[in-house]
């Protein structure tokens, strides 16, 4: 892990910006912590949601508490490989089925290819990125409103072009 902390003062509030880098194999605990800090929104952009933390019981419990905490809380997942998601993330799939008004899952339209990266934006000032999926480097940044806003705009643009993941609610009969 490498990291740096800087302080940015604004008229509205003092924020602490933290930038940490981890190997992908070490990213589970920091990402779990980031999810636990969410107060309003979690947006996840992943061509293949294969980060082990999302399949864990700890993440499922954290996300269940998050959606139960407020009727305004939302989780949006934009997933490229829906078969992988459905097969390898059973806890998250079950949560999305139990709380469809709070957890939405979409995939990009078939003609659109997702860039080779993964990111999670939490609220308005924290995010996780794996800039290249074939690279093990993961970046966590908190207290970064501009960076989070930039990623959220990208996410929103892709989200609007996406399609609901209908397979989430089929029984397979």
What does this structure look like?
The chain has 173 residues and is α+β, with helices and mostly antiparallel strands. It has one domain: 2-Layer Sandwich (Endonuclease, Chain A), CATH 3.30.870.10. Helices cover 32% and strands 31% of the residues. The chain contains five helices and nine strands. Strands 1-2-8-7-6-3-4-5-9 form a nine-stranded mixed beta sheet, with helices on both faces. 29% of the residues are buried. About 6% of the residues have low confidence.
Question: What descriptive keywords fit this protein?
Answer:
single chain; 173 residues; alpha+beta; Endonuclease, Chain A; nine-stranded mixed sheet; 32% helix; globular
| Proportion in β-strands | 25-35%
Query: Radius of gyration, rounded?
Result: 16 Å
What is the CATH architecture assignment? 2-Layer Sandwich
Structural class estimated from helices and strands: alpha+beta
Number of helices: 5
Mean pLDDT metric: 86
CATH class: Alpha Beta
Topology:
Elements: E1 2-9, E2 14-23, H1 28-36, E3 41-46, H2 57-69, E4 74-79, H3 82-88, H4 90-98, E5 103-107, E6 118-122, E7 126-130, E8 137-142, H5 145-161, E9 163-164
Parallel strand pairs: 3-4, 4-5
Antiparallel strand pairs: 1-2, 2-8, 3-6, 5-9, 6-7, 7-8
Short description:
The protein has 173 residues and is α+β, with helices and mostly antiparallel strands. It is built from 5 helices and 9 strands.
């Amino acid at each position: 892990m490498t990291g740096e902390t800087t302080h940015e003062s604004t008229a509205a509030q003092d924020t602490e910006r933290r930038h940490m880098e981890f190997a992908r194999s070490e990213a589970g605990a920091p990402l779990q912590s980031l999810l636990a800090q969410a107060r309003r929104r979690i947006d996840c952009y992943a061509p293949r949601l294969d980060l082990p933390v999302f399949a864990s019981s700890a993440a499922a419990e954290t996300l269940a508490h998050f959606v139960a905490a407020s009727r305004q809380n939302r989780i949006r997942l934009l997933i490229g490989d829906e078969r992988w998601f459905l097969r390898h993330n059973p806890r998250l799939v079950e949560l999305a089925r139990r709380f469809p008004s709070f957890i939405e899952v979409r995939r990009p339209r078939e003609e659109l290819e997702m860039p080779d990266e993964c990111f999670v934006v939490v609220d308005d000032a924290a995010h996780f990125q794996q800039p290249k999926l074939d690279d093990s480097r993961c970046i966590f940044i908190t207290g970064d409103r501009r960076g989070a806003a930039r990623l959220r705009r990208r996410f929103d643009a892709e989200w609007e072009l996406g399609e609901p993941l209908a397979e989430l609610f089929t029984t397979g009969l």
